[in-house]
Amino acid sequence: MYFGLNEPEKQEVQHNELKKTFDYNEDIEELGKKMDKANREKLSKDDCDNLFISETSALEDINLLRNEEQEDFTKSIENFKQEALKTEILFSSEDFDIFGAISEDKTKINTLGNTKHREIKRSMFRILDITKNTQNEQYVKRLREIIKGLDKTLDNFSFGYNLNAYCASSSPLDTNNYNILYINPKNALESVKNSEKINLFNIKLNEKTKAIPLTNIIYYDNTNRTLPLGMNISDKILIDLRKLKLELKKQKLFRINQEIDDIKALTKIICVYEYEIYL
Predict the structure, then answer these.
(1) Which of 46, 113, 160, 208 has its CA 20 to 30 A from that of 238?
(2) Dihedral sign for Cα atoms in the order 205, 208, 211, 214
(3) What is the DSSP letter of 94?
């Protein structure tokens, strides 16, 4: 838990009828619903599957393959198989229904954002075609298909909003890969909470930026048409920084206190870099 970090500054968000000052705590629900509605109108099931994979541990493999840095992912495949076994997924062809989702009771009631629904979570194992017999060649082929799909989707998708988004790292900004950004900087910081010195990158997205918010439809199938609109699962955004031109506008340093327990707290150094995207 972090103390001493200010709430996200008010940002100008413009998208059709939504033209007002954006406050995260007050407006994220409304913004999430608008974004999710747009995703459902524009994205196919395959698009959503690919985007779901982009926020899993497979993203590292995708970036390595995309940059021709690695083509042997035997270790990753074995880790996925072990993870599937731990979650009691047998990952054979019989485990999937005709829609490609993990077979389970479609009458089961789930709750998302205080709203009940009967939808099924997307499965990383199913989308990656991880079975007991999956080999490296098959996995690489599937990753290449996902990369092709992500590139096409991002090329045809404009974010539609003027909005600050954040990522954090103990290293310099990675501008050669797909990146996951957060609308809330506190969530970005949580992703690297074990580092004593953190680089927080504030990237100002605009309406024409090629970026896609990971809304509810990215995480669930909506076969029964009961999935609530919103960004109830995460505030993440997928972006491909290697296709964008960034300009560093400002740099500053400050400190925050992280609570260790009721008595102890750890002071961390945060280096903030503010970037703008120019066309």
Answers:
(1) 113
(2) positive
(3) G
* Nearest-angstrom CA–CA distance, 213 and 236: 6
Tens of pLDDT, residue by residue over 156-195, are 999 999 999 999 999 999 999 999 999 999 999 988 877 8
Tell me, rounded to whole angstroms, the distance of Cα 233 from its chain centroid.
Answer: 10
Q: How far apart are CA 148 and CA 146, in angstroms?
A: 5
Alpha-carbon span 112 to 151, nearest angstrom: 30
pTM across the whole model: 0.84
Cβ contacts of residue 235 below 8 Å, gap of 6+?
A: 28, 32, 182, 183, 184, 187
Q: Domain map of the chain by residue range? A: 2-278
In sequence order, which residues have a C-beta less than 8 Å from that of residue 8 and are 6 or more positions away?
23, 24, 164, 183, 184, 185
